[in-house]
Amino acid sequence: MLETQIAEHNGGLLSTLAKYRADTVRVWHDTIRAIEEFINVPFFGLDDDALVAWLMAVPLDGRFFRNPTLVTSVQAALRPHLEGGTVERFCRLMLQIAAISAGFRMNGQASFGAGITLDTIGDAMIYLQSRRRHFVSLLYLMPLACRGDVKLAPLDALNVLLPQVEHSCVTITSLHLKLMLLDALPEFTLQVDEQGALASHWLETLDPWFADPERASIVVMNELRGDQIAMHSSEPVDPTKIFSAAELRNSIKLLGATYEAFGLNDSDFKAMAAVVISLSHRCRDDYVVAIGKPKLRTLLRKQGKCDPSDRERLLVNRPSTEYAVNTNAFEPFIDVGDAVVSNVNLLSRFLYAFKNIHLGSRKRFQIHPGFIFEEMVARELARIGLEITDIKRINRKEFDVVATCAGVIYNFQCKNNAIDFTQVESDRKLFIRYNRRLVAHFLRALAKEERREHLLKDELGLDNFSGIS
After folding, report:
1. InterPro entries attached here (predicted)?
2. How far apart are CA 274 and CA 265, in angstroms?
């Protein structure tokens, strides 16, 4: 049943896109730019905390239509801080989301996941963040799917495609996740009725911003290891722009500096970063990167000793008619015939994924994030009121984080594992085998800690033990 539903939703997506012209790729590409700016304006475009709080609370539900001055108020608030194009795209998207939200509510849908709504600008930001993967996956699908003669107007793009994202895109990834749980858990059940399917188990990721899991993100590295990172000088950036080619090049420098201690710059990453930097100088409107295929191949031949064909395969997406395949793609360029098109966000996303692949096999990097994770756990425990002890070893037995609170010992075993969620769709059997190995590893670790809890009791002079987390 799950596989049949996946096929039907995939067919529905292809059928919807089939009537639109090939230039729908450009229209959706521009829409994604507006979405990315909308998400990032409060965090990177405004320095006024009071203004950010006001903007996040601007209503997009029924209150929006009862207050016709809201759009002009938002425009007036943003203009002193952002360039005109960004303000225009932000307000246009705000109008579109308000209208789409009303349409969803008329059809009985007001929530889009745990606590996710479209009631305010802040809520809409979280919603759009949670769907970013689907927006890019649709972009990858379009070169194969859009073969009709209907022109998709820019103002209609979100109205046409956002319901498809909710109805089919989110459903396809959800069904793949259910298939994985079905194979992984003998006790998994699915109750099906006319309203839908209710699963007995689900998977919740820890990242509140729906980012892909990784051992040590660039944010964490700079927060906890910033004193060890030698950052080279940065290019000046236009503060009125949310994205720019200069910002992309600064991000590349920061990536290299942050992970230099683990040999990132000794690998193919350095050569690929040089390619992306060269491409960034071809930016149009500080965002779009378009280049003819012959020129791209010439550029790649000039960069290092690697086979330019291999690099082209890494850079240019080869779309699939299976939506789930596109959800796991990270190539930054879309093939539009004689040329390929990308943008500064897709280039940054690609290089970040490329970095993860190259660091993933390095033993020192595999080990070091474990220590970082222990620090993160200890810091969070201290924040909620536990007292962190300095115990790291007793009788040659190592402990990760040991805390006390109200006379009770809390022993935390910290495991920082790299989990590739793309395998849920691309190689479910491999994902399940890895999950089972992790579970067995965790159970052995817990049993080991239980056998030596007496060491902590004796060391701390306490007899009340909470168990192992």
Report:
1. Restrct_endonuc-II-like (IPR011335)
2. 11
CA angle 210, 240, 353 (to 5 degrees): 30
Residue 337: exposure state from Cβ atoms within 10 A (0-12, 13-18, ≥19) = exposed
Note the pTM of the prediction, 2 decimals: 0.91
Both tokens of 135, joined, read: 């927006």
Over residues 255-306, the pLDDT tens digits come to 999 999 999 988 789 989 999 999 999 999 999 999 999 999 999 988 766 7
pLDDT above 70 for 467: no
Question: Any residues with CB less than 8 A from the CB of 200 and at least 6 apart, and which?
Answer: 187, 188, 189, 190, 191
DSSP string, 365-385: HHHHHHHHHHHHHHHHHHHTT
Closest CA to 35 of 150, 139, 116: 139
Query: To the nearest 10°, the Cα dihedral for 429, 431, 432, 434?
Result: 120
* DSSP character at residue 154: G
CB of 145 within 8 A of CB of 18? Answer: yes
Task: Identify the burial level of 131 via C-beta atoms within 10 angstroms of its C-beta, where 0-12 means exposed, 13-18 middle and 19 or more buried.
Answer: buried
Q: How many CB atoms lie within 10 A of CB 87?
A: 22
How many Å is the Cα radius of gyration of the chain?
A: 25
Residue 266 burial by CB count (10 A; 0-12/13-18/19+): exposed, middle or buried? exposed
Asked if 30 and 82 touch (Cβ cutoff 8 Å), the reply is no
The residue among 214, 211, 213, 215 whose CA lies nearest residue 364 is: 215
**Domain spans of the chain, in order of start:** 2-199, 218-360, 369-468
How far is Cα of residue 394 from the mean position of the Cα atoms in its chain? 40
| Residue 105 host element (H or E) | helix 84-106
Q: How far apart are CA 258 and CA 254, in angstroms?
A: 6
pLDDT in tens, 119-134: 999 999 999 999 999 9
Tokens matching residue 281: 């100088």
Phi, psi of 134 (to 5 degrees): -70, -35
pLDDT tens-digit series, residues 148-206: 999 999 999 999 999 999 999 999 999 999 999 999 999 999 998 887 778 999 887 77
List, in sequence order, every residue forming a beta bridge with 279; answer none if it has no partner: none
Judge whether 144 and 61 are in contact, CB under 8 Å: no
The Cα–Cα gap between 316 and 342 comes to 9
